[in-house]
Structures are given as C-alpha cells and as structure tokens.
Design brief:
With 205 residues, the chain is α/β, with parallel strands linked by helices. The protein has helices at residues 3-16, 19-30, 50-62, 89-93, 111-123, 135-140, 152-165, 173-189; strands at 39-42, 71-73, 100-105, 126-131, 143-146. The two termini are 16 Å apart.
Length: 205
C-alpha cells in the first residue's frame, strides 16, 4: 500500500459521505461476538480478498486479538493447498449463529454468493461487507461500505483502514473515528512515500 493512495482516500470519504460507514464497519468488526475461528472472509469467484485477509491476520497477532484471526473461504481450492488455504464454500454454508461473514466484492456479487450469505444471516451470523457499489449486497449486510469509485486501489485502501482500526475499537465511536483520522493524517503527512504502514514479517497467506 502507498501512503499517497491512502491520503487520497480522505476527500473520497468526505465527498461520498462514507466516512461514518467506515467507522461503523470497523466498530462492528472489532466488537463482533464471534470467537476464534468465527470470522469468515469471502470474496467473489473472480477476486479472493488476499490483502484484507493478510492485514487482519497481522493485526490480530499484533493486538492479541485471536478472535480477529480470519478464515479465508475460497470458491475453488487447488489440490495440495495448505490447511489454512484449503477452506471451501462448505464452511460458509455451515456458518453458525454469532459468527461473522465478511464479504469483499469489488464487482457485483453473484447469485450464488448472495444466497449463501443470506442463508448465513438468517441463521444469525453477522454480515459485513466492503463492495464496489452492489445494492443487493449493501442491503443484505448489517454494516457495509460501498466505495463509489471504479479504481480497485480505493477499495483496497478502505479494507486497510478497517483492518487496522478494528482491533482497537471501543464502545466510543468518537475514539474510533479519531483513530481513523490519525491513520489518514499520518498517511497525508507521508504522502508519496511507499511501503506498509507498520513493520512486521510478510503475512503467511
């Protein structure tokens, strides 16, 4: 991720009126009732949310939040995939009450994805999403951020902001809003500098 891209997100958030949505989504993720193993991340058949999953995996370890260690649910599991990358759609279909299903959909969600997520919600799972403007997915999710921009980099940046702020959520949305703003302020101060926002080893994803 580049800091100049992250800093460019602020006017997008403000102009589109989605800054509150980002705060609400991060709050919902950070306070979700699921236990370890109960956070399911799923994308579309064409786009697997590797970066978001990796960011969450790192943040869960850095912040001692095992409940935020994600499980990547894949549409097609290749032969010989390691166990943590071999979780297929049957896990989404088996989602339980008080688990969380987080959908990342840069393009329109397929009927198959919408049906599986709707089933999980009816069972009692919390549904969250970041998407590129899908009205059906937006309506289906309990909390959702629709990024009104066709550039994939902006949607990825929203995912980065959510993954970095969710572990530090508190009952005070003012506190989380300040955390989001500090992240964007830092990025704006370092505009044009490439590289990750913090150190650490490469994710295992």
């Amino acid at each position: 991720m580049r800091y100049d891209e992250l800093s460019a997100l602020r006017p997008l958030l403000e102009a589109a009126g989605i800054e509150d949505d980002v705060v609400e989504l991060a709050t919902a993720l950070g306070s979700a009732p699921h236990g370890p193993g109960g956070l399911l991340i799923v994308g579309t058949p064409q786009d697997e949310p590797w970066h978001f999953t990796a960011h969450l995996a790192d943040e869960s370890r850095w912040n001692d939040r095992p409940d935020l260690e994600p499980t990547l649910v894949r549409w097609n599991v290749p032969a010989g995939a390691p166990a943590h990358l071999a979780v297929g759609l049957e896990r989404l279909e088996a989602a339980r009450r008080s688990e969380t299903v987080f959908v990342v959909a840069p393009t329109q969600a397929s009927e198959g994805l919408l049906e599986r997520v709707a089933d999980a919600r009816r069972i009692g799972a919390l549904v969250l999403s970041v998407h590129g403007g899908d009205p059906q997915l937006h309506q289906l999710a309990h909390e959702s951020v629709g990024v009104p921009d066709t550039r994939a980099s902006y949607l990825e940046i929203v995912q980065h902001v959510v993954s970095e702020t969710a572990p530090g959520q508190s009952a005070s949305r003012r506190s989380l809003r300040a955390r989001v703003n500090r992240l964007l302020d830092t990025a704006q101060g370092l505009r044009g500098v490439g590289g990750p926002a913090r150190g650490g080893s490469r994710p295992r994803w």
